[in-house]
Design goal:
140 residues, single chain, 88% helix
């Protein structure tokens, strides 16, 4: 029997993987260009770019977590034994995105709200899919 939330979990899982890969590629490109500029420009600008590289590293870690949660959501969507695990992954992603947004906002005072609203909405949809799976387990 197909669980009620498995389609939603698979869809959001695929979206998490796609967005995570795109974000990771952008973060790696930014880190490489910052390191090149930092070594060319000298010590003062180099230190500024090193700080920016630290911020990019946090984004890379969140991107890797996004890819992992998306992959696990796709793999475990039909398995009703992992409903609570997937629910906790969804809560963890919301917490990571809020923490990352707070980190970026405290660093430079501005934030791309649309991007964070999209990924938080995807996390909520992921949670809804896990909740529907958990509900179908309880009904059996």
């Amino acid at each position: 029997m197909e669980a009620k939330g498995s389609t939603l979990l698979k869809t959001t899982g695929y979206l998490f993987v796609i967005l995570g890969v795109i974000t990771l590629c952008i973060q790696i490109g930014g880190m490489i260009s910052d390191d090149i500029i930092g070594t060319i420009q000298g010590s003062v600008l180099g230190q500024m770019f090193i700080l920016d590289s630290g911020r990019l590293a946090v984004g890379m870690l969140v991107s890797v977590a996004e890819i992992a949660v998306g992959y696990l959501g796709v793999k475990m969507a039909s398995n009703l034994l992992y409903t609570r695990t997937l629910k906790w992954y969804g809560f963890g992603m919301i917490a990571l995105f809020i923490l990352e947004a707070f980190f970026y906002y405290s660093e430079n005072g501005n934030l791309n709200w649309i991007a964070y609203l999209i990924v938080i909405a995807l996390s909520v949809l992921y949670l809804i899919g896990a909740y529907l799976n958990e509900k179908s387990v309880k009904n059996q």
